[in-house]
Design brief:
Structural class of chain A: mainly alpha
Largest interface: A-B, 29 and 27 residues
CATH architecture of chain B: 3-Layer(aba) Sandwich
CATH superfamily of chain B: P-loop containing nucleotide triphosphate hydrolases
Number of helices of chain A: 10
CATH class of chain B: Alpha Beta
Oligomer: heterodimer
Strand order of the largest sheet of chain A: 1-2
Strand order of the largest sheet of chain B: 6-7-8-3-9-10
Number of helices of chain B: 7
Largest sheet of chain B: 6 strands, mixed
Helix content of chain B: 25-40%
Largest sheet of chain A: 2 strands, antiparallel
Shape of chain B: globular
Number of strands of chain B: 10
Strand content of chain B: 25-35%
Number of strands of chain A: 2
Radius of gyration of chain B: 17 Å
Amino acid sequence: MSLLRLSWLLYRKDLQIAARSKEVLGFMLLFAVLCVVVFAFGFLRAGAAADAELPGVLWVTLLFSSTVGLLRLFTPEDEGGVLDLMHRSIHGSLPLFLSKALLQLTYTGVVTVLLVPTVLLFFDAHLQAPGLVAAALALGLIGQATLGTLCAALLMQVRMREVLLPLLLYPLLAPVVLGGVQVTAHLQQGAGPEVWGGWLGLMAAYDVVLLVLAPWLHERVTQGAA
Amino acid sequence: MQESSQTSGSRPVLQASSVAWAVGDRFVLLDADLSIFPGECLALTGDNGAGKSTLLDLLAAVRTAQAGEIRLYNTPLSQVEPAEIARRIARLGHKPGLYLDLSACENLILFEALQGRQADKETIAARLGEVGILPADQHRPVRAFSRGMLQRTALGRIVHSQADVWLLDEPSTGLDASGLQILLRTIEQACAQGTAVVLASHDPPLIQACSRRVRVSGGRVLAEAA
């Protein structure tokens, strides 16, 4: 069985589990909406939420809600005691990492699809360049899913992981969030690619580094621990 | 059960030499030596906290010995591929080693795939039937199972793994009288086919059924227990 086929099989299994329990995605969505509501009230200016804050609210809400998913990403393996079995597949622990990163990407993708219209509704705004914002969001989601999965895996059996995960993840995700906020803000202001192109490039470059480094680090750490 | 192959001169499947494991400054295991031969059933006895589970974890390569060496067919465990360890050694720990939101059948199919094998659903159903999981229960999530049924399913996983060594930590936990009989019969059959079984238990019928007994005390593996 090839690496990709096994990873896909594990991903399908995770989707099956997610569909049966439904709790993770539900909580992520609820948390995202709650964040937007809180931000909208926090940024009220003259009775309306200030749309200048929209990029920040969108990206920070995504970051927060993705953390909810990450904290539960390895729960099925942990509660059933199957982690060492998953690290010892014919392709090592790589299929587990790939399937979990893809699952996290799926979770955050669904949240994003519902979050964007919610933010626009609360901030009474519309996207100036939906395609480019979608591209920036896609790059952001790939980055957070890859790095988030790595951090969640590293902290899985650590006490206080609920606290440590954001402490570890948020600083490391700064280029992604900062880039996403800048790209979205500039696009909303109608700026040209010479203004936001560099930020988008930074996000893409950071994603490439993460996509290479994170699976390798995960394999090194898990096989070393096994 | 079948007499140990130790006397017949066969080489050990697993061999621990001067193994040590400490938590902080307290040694859980110190200079522990143990050889496990094909076809034997070895009982580890000893008080709570004596180090039985730790020894099983080390033998299963779930933890790495801080000193000393463990060899699988005379090759240091550190040099054996993780997938090969999974193929040779099956471990039943305090957790069942199952995805709780998958059915018994789905779990076994998944673990087959991890080892690159194509699952034979009929064989899996038969295997689960042997350990007392009725056909009606084989397709519902194991989360709904009682502790005893979970343990039976976990035993089914071990049997189906076709590993050379079974490491069972308190395998009779939660089992009723018929479950215990199934466990005893399964171990006897496995040993007759050359599988080495090491179990840590406080259950007298299980300990008595073993062909060899050693006592773990004060971090050391002592001579044959009475």
